Amino acid sequence: MIEVLAKLGHGPVFLAGEVLECVITFTNPLSASSTSASSEMLAWASAQIHCQFHASENRVALPPSDGSKHDVQAENETVFVPNRGERGQCILSTPPKILFCDLRLDPGESKSYSYCETLPIDGPPSFRGQSVKYVYKLTIGCQRVNSPIKLLRVPFRVLVLHGLKDYQFPQDEAVAPSNPFLEEEEGLKKDSRLADLATELLMVATSRRSLHLYNISNTRGKVGTFCIFKTVYKIGEDVIGTFNFSEGDIPCLQFSVSLQTEESIQEEFQRRRGQPVSFSTHARHQEACLHTAQSSFSLPIPLSSTPGFTTNIVSLKWRLHFEFVTSGESAGTCLVRGSQSEAVTWTGVEQMEVDTFSWDLPIKVLPTNPILASYVSQFSSTNSITI
Question: Distance between CA 356 and CA 323 in Å, rounded?
Fold first, then answer.
């Protein structure tokens, strides 16, 4: 028996273009009955990164696959196929790397190997939607002599930030920013600079503030105004907005604000022409606001959510969805006198004519630092199997 343990070096969340580093340890556990004859042998081990794409048959019409490219070797259990048994299509993969050949482990002995690979910068982000899914995994294949291959899959999350692909790192290391107190390998230097660049780009894009004022009105008149200071956010930030109903002509009884994503399939891949867009709500605020002059809301963008993106098949966009309930009567008639005695009691009316309407405000949501997203990731940095 051999235990195989894979541990990701920097958590389970990465930016496209970063270097994924995984330490893979093979151990022959020591037991009371272990003898010199209890040594274990592995013929080889290999590792490869791949992205699986899965689409809902009810929502997405994919072109038929080319059956002429059928690989007979892929059916052989002694051939390393990282996505064997996985649902969907493998749309992206890195070249496989051999970790070792002919490994012998005595009882209690263990050996570790480091796997490093740059994540493709032009791939899709990790996404689990109602219509499609993009899932990234690192697959480690191990084989004993004359035995089937055993696979250890390490799922991880990929965030995509546009603008990194066109960046060229300085060729002269003398002009590149560096820490003189640290000795780093060339790959790690470039990786840290990529993370620093991403942080800088995100800071510039999301720190710009300017007053955006919107008049809220229906067919009968003005209800109020809405104010928001920016429309570009990172996942993990709060969307904050304020309402002013003091200048409205129509009383607003209640409002709700929902933070939503809209997942739409590109027209050529739609199962039915004009099929509706899929919406998902991530946060919601609802408030009764009759006789309220001003109000506000704060909606957090979950760190586990997917920033907006577009591929040749699907598009994901973010928006604020507003719903307003207004009175069909004047504000003064919304209360009635309940007693003729000296102590006057005012109560709400039992029935009221109301009007409802909605409004959508598009916003832009970008990724964040992968380290922050790792804190709430559903994936573990450590995975293991026994073979």
Answer: 7
